Structure formats: structure tokens, C-alpha cells
Amino acid sequence: AQSVTQLGSHVSVSEGALVLLRCNYSSSVPPYLFWYVQYPNQGLQLLLKYTSAATLVKGINGFEAEFKKSETSFHLTKPSAHMSDAAEYFCAVSPSGTASKLTFGTGTRLQVTL
Amino acid sequence: DAGITQSPRHKVTETGTPVTLRCHQTENHRYMYWYRQDPGHGLRLIHYSYGVKDTDKGEVSDGYSVSRSKTEDFLLTLESATSSQTSVYFCAISGTSGGYEQYFGPGTRLTVT
Prior knowledge:
The complex is a heterodimer.
Chain A: E1 2-5, E2 10-14, E3 19-21, E4 24-27, E5 31-38, E6 44-50, E7 56-58, E8 64-68, E9 73-78, E10 87-95, E11 103-104, E12 108-113
Parallel strand pairs in A: 2-12
Antiparallel strand pairs in A: 1-4, 3-9, 5-6, 5-10, 7-8, 8-9, 10-11, 10-12
Chain B: E1 4-7, E2 10-13, E3 19-25, E4 31-38, E5 42-51, E6 54-57, E7 64-70, E8 73-78, E9 87-94, E10 103-104, E11 108-112
Parallel strand pairs in B: 2-11
Antiparallel strand pairs in B: 1-3, 3-8, 4-5, 4-9, 5-6, 7-8, 9-10, 9-11
């Protein structure tokens, strides 16, 4: 069984500030972990993925995430927020090594203010 | 972008009518998925396919059926639409290597009146 918890359904940051979106997972086997971004009226776009290689994963648009097994976390960060980062972000988990079903968190809406 | 299209993109239908949504891919990926997205629930898996004519249920499969007669097409049918099936439906695909990440289509907004 696997599950994902995203803390904070809404996060607001100022432009230029650090972005931190939290994701904790539960998995009975070593997981693969993903972050997706969804802009209004669009589908989900893959930001980055962890597949048991490097624990610090870099993605598109300056985002990165660190896999911490001891904390069962995979938090998403970006050093400096841009207005264009405003979107909804989803964390997802699947059992490693298979094209299995993804389990998604409920999402975090990021607002970026001037 | 992954070559995934969904049709129709928007649909309004009446309670009790059957509805079929189509997902078409040009990537020749083995796996295809149907999700629904509702506020506060994230994405929930309805059905998925692991090959032609090979399908299985997800967590919210009641009231839905699927078919996959060709690698590139995955159909989702609401046998008798209900207002609770008003949602945005996303198709996704994944391959058989790497992290098995899924790539998503643009979505279909379905309203059942």
C-alpha cells in the first residue's frame, strides 16, 4: 500500500522568495517519487522524478527535490520564486521497478505575489 | 510534449446517457491510464491498461468501463452518466523503461446535468 500527504493545500510566497512544498509518502516497498505541475486548464507536466539514484533530484524550471528515506519525505524547493511558478503542484508515489499505478497527493496551490 | 490527445475536450450531457471519451497516443507506449480530477481529491485512477485488450480497475472504477483494441487508443465509457461523474478526466501514458513516469493529456471537462 502507498499514500502521499501534501502539507498545505495553499502556499503563498513573494516573488524572489524560497519556495518549499512539502510531500511525505508511505510505501511498503522502495518507492519511485514524482512531482508534477498543473497550470490552469492544462494537463499535468512532469517536473522531476526520483528513481533510487541520486537523492537530490533536479528538475525543470529551477526546481529540485531531495529524497530523505529517514523522514519519508520528498519536498520540492526552488530558491527564488517567479510569477510564472504560480500553479498547482502534485506529489506522486509508485512502487519502484514497475509501471505501476501512481498514487497522487491532493495537491498544493502555489500563489506568487509581488 | 508526449503525443497524447483527448476528445472531446468539453462535453455537457444529461443524466442517464452513455458517454465515451477517447484517448489517442502516438508514442507507442504500452501503458495507458484514465484518471478523474476533483477538488480536494487530487487525481484518482479509474482504469488502466497494460496492453491491447488488457485492462484493470483502479480505485474509482464503479460506473465506468474501458476498452483498448489498439495500442494507440484507450476509450473510457460512462455507461449511464450521473451528476457525481461531473469532473475533469485525464488520460496518461507510460513506457517500459526508466522511472515509468506518466505523461498526461490535456484533459476532458465533462458536465452531467
